Amino acid sequence: MKLGVNIDHVATLRQARRGVEPEPVLAALVCEAAGADSIVVHLREDRRHIREQDLFLLKKAIRTRLNLEMSVSKEIVGIACEARPGQATLVPEKRQELTTEGGLDVTGNFKRIQRAMESLEKNGIGVSLFIDPDKRQIRAAKELGAKMLELHTGRFAEAKTMKLQDGFFRQIREAARFAKAEGFKVFAGHGLNYDNVARIAGIREIEELNIGYSIICRALFAGLGRAVREMRELIGD
Ligand code: PXP
Asked: For the whole model, what pTM was predicted?
């Protein structure tokens, strides 16, 4: 199973002061050195974390695949065609949302998605569609000629009871099997953390998991003690 690490929230921290640290490129290199198979970033229309410049720097600096999450807006598609990440993952985007809330409605936005896919593919960018684990969406993605899908694990991750979680897990497993049988490369992600990842990682048909928030949160506590000790030392007694 491959791991794509989403580093958006390194940039969120940088944007909190509109400064230069922490630098997302450095974060990407640390992730790669630790075994990440790809680096994921979402260039949002409101630029709340990653900005255009980050894309171009990341593309130059990293050795693994750059996976750009993006909406199908003309502006963002234009930037992606210039930056040429190894992969683009099309996601729905709402300005008010805290994070991507649901999968793409492929059937309802067929033409817009088709146009974005055509432009991206013409520029050599492989396109993945982020969808809910739903056969109807998988069939529509096939009709579009997509080759890669990312299944939304958010509902599974946020389920409040084991019974609900079991139900969402079965939906994801079935969708992964169906998509794989239809010839797709299947990925999954959203809301996965150190407690819930094992079940999803056990689905054979899924090739890669994209995980961000929980890794960045974990990194904070894995490093906070050391950061305080280093400052303590600089200050002296
Ligand atoms: N996959 C997609 C398509 C996403 O939009 C996100 C969030 O940016 C992730 C994976 C990672 O989700 P999380 O940050 O909750 O791990």
From this structure: 0.96
H helices present in 145-212, as ranges: 154-158, 162-181, 197-201
Domains of the chain: 2-235 (3.20.20.70)
Query: Which residues have CB under 6 Å of ligand 1?
Result: 6, 8, 42, 69, 89, 91, 99-100, 130, 150, 189-192, 210-214
Q: What are phi and psi of 144, to 5 degrees?
A: -75, -15
Centre of ligand 1 from the C-alpha of residue 154, in Å:
9
User: Could you list the active site residues?
Assistant: 42, 69, 190
CA of 158 to the centre of ligand 1 (A): 13
What is the Cα 66 distance to its own chain's centre? 10
- Which residues share a beta bridge with 128? 89, 148
User: Residue 146: what residue type?
Assistant: A
**Mind listing the pLDDT tens digit for each residue in 137-180?**
999 999 999 999 999 999 999 999 999 999 999 999 999 999 99
